[in-house]
Amino acid sequence: MHLLAPLIDFLLPTLCMVCERVQSHIVCSNCLLNNRRAILQRASSCTVCGIPITTPESRCLNCVKNPPVYDASLYINSYTSELQYALHAYKYQSRLACAAGFSYLWNQCADMLSPQIFADYLLPVPLGVSKLNMRGFNQSWEIAKNIQLPITVRKIPDAIGRRGDEAPQATLNRAMRKEKMEGMFYLNTNWCGRFKDRTIIVFDDVMTSGATMNAIAALLKREGAKHVSAWVVLRTLPKP
Ligand SMILES: [Zn+2]
Ligand SMILES: [Zn+2]
């Protein structure tokens, strides 16, 4: 840390990206605590999809009956939490400083989210070329690149490519949507054959149905990946 950092923080206060009160950090201590509390409150969660469960089982009924392709998931908070407004400002109003805020939040919650990390690679979910050109940055990568991980975990921003930006059409049936989604992602040629027996983290800003994560996990499993974890900032949870 720069020796003058405390003085600079004092002279140049910022706004907490979550509650928008004047603070010296991009996420204030109160908002950090709220998010840590949210993680604590779901201490009993499905080890695969991450939704809170009330039974002593390790997996929810849905993951037992119809398991997703990814093996495990971590997230900071629910999509309906206060964090969603900062995420919208980040993505849709290009408030890039929020990327550092989300990385900071993740790092400050890492002891609760993932005390031990066994992974070979971290790959962000890619954007299609036209969306990347329009937004100017990949929101998942901008957060992921500042997440503190053991030096043995390689972060690779461009291993996975994405063919189109459009979501699979609602008029298609479930099987057709799955097929279309799986066809959207591919490995860039210099990464083909390099994920066999590897443990991989796939990082995204949001997980809703899990279809994107499943499609990427399926691609990596076809390549022989041993374990795929889905790490997301916010995820949609079923209504209690
Ligand atoms: Zn705050
Ligand atoms: Zn589950």
Name the assembly state. Answer: single chain
CATH level 3 topology of the domain at 73-235? Rossmann fold
Bound molecules: zinc ion
Strand share of the residues? Answer: 15-25%
User: What is the number of E strands?
Assistant: 9
Order of helices and strands: HEEHHEHHEHHEEHEEHE
| N- and C-termini, Cα separation | 43 Å
Largest sheet: 5 strands, parallel
The averaged pLDDT comes out at: 90
Helix-and-strand structural type: alpha/beta
Number of separate helices: 9
The rounded Rg comes to 18 Å
Helix amount: 25-40%
CATH class of the domain at 73-235: Alpha Beta
Strands side by side in the biggest sheet: 3-9-8-4-5
* Low confidence ranges: none
Shape: globular
Account of the 3D structure:
A 5-stranded parallel β-sheet has the order 3-9-8-4-5. The protein has a two-stranded antiparallel ribbon with strand order 1-2. The chain has a two-stranded antiparallel sheet with strand order 6-7. It is built from 9 helices and 9 strands. The longest helix is centred in the middle third of the chain and has 17 residues. The mean pLDDT is 90. By secondary structure, the protein is α/β, with parallel strands linked by helices. It has a domain of 163 residues: Rossmann fold (3-Layer(aba) Sandwich). The chain binds zinc ion (2 copies). One zinc ion (ZN) binds next to α2.
